[in-house]
Specification:
Elements lengths: L14 E2 L2 E5 L6 H10 L3 E4 L1 H9 L5 E2 H5 L14 H8 L5 H10 L6 E4 L4 H6 L4 H6 L4 H11 L5 E3 L5 H10 L3 E2 L1 H28 L3
Parallel strand pairs: 2-3, 2-5, 3-4, 5-6
Antiparallel strand pairs: 1-7
């Protein structure tokens, strides 16, 4: 079985961040980081509690449901699983087909994702029952993290609050742009995060006799 061929696109070192999706469970430092984004004229998309916190701090926010035209449904289980989000994250810049499809579907590019995950391991550690543990398996978060990390040629994935200072400095130094070196470093950290997360889920399920 042959693997997928690389998709041709433009080469880029510095990429201007014009739109970012910010949706975090751990909100440590997120207001301060979002203010840096706002100072760099970045349009911020957000959901739920993150959007509420940013709005309360005076940070301009567009709700994801307004951006996509699709409501949050199923008690919040489906918020960001939408072509307007993942198309904007996965599109290869400078690829004619991708750009034509984005135009046809009226999908805008997203240049940064700021996302950390539901506390699955902490929920298990508290001795929570099966249904509670399962409800704390994040779906939309890992999906966005993986989409952004896969497209690190153009998209920055911020998966831990400890990264905010380094990224803020680069944005300020580069007039709102991220470097390819930083984006690939962030992608590596992001895939490590999702790998550990999935391992924790698998380990828990095995411990329950499955």
């Amino acid at each position: 079985m042959s693997s997928h061929k690389a998709i041709e696109g433009k080469k880029a070192d510095l990429v201007q961040v014009t739109r970012a999706l910010v949706s975090v469970f751990d909100k440590t430092g997120v207001v301060e980081f979002a203010k840096v984004l706002a100072e760099c004229k970045v349009e911020i998309l957000s959901t739920g509690g993150t959007a509420k916190k940013l709005k309360e701090a005076g940070v301009p926010v567009t709700m994801v449901k307004d951006y996509t035209g699709a409501p949050e449904i199923l008690n919040g289980r489906v918020k960001t699983l939408n072509p307007h989000i993942h198309g904007g994250l996965l599109a290869v810049r400078g690829n004619k087909l991708h750009e034509e499809e984005l135009t046809r579907e009226k999908i805008g590019l997203i240049d940064m994702v700021v996302c950390n995950l539901y506390p699955f391991e902490q929920t298990v550690a508290k001795g929570s029952d099966w249904d509670t543990c399962i409800e704390n398996i994040d779906i939309g978060g890992p999906s966005m993290i993986r989409s952004a990390a896969k497209n690190s040629n153009y998209v920055a994935i911020v998966s831990d609050p400890s990264q905010y200072d380094e990224i803020s400095k680069q944005l300020k130094d580069n007039k709102g742009s991220t470097s390819l070196k930083l984006r690939k470093k962030l992608a590596c950290a992001a895939f490590t995060t999702t790998a550990k997360y999935d391992t924790a889920i698998s380990t828990y399920m095995k411990s329950q006799g499955f």
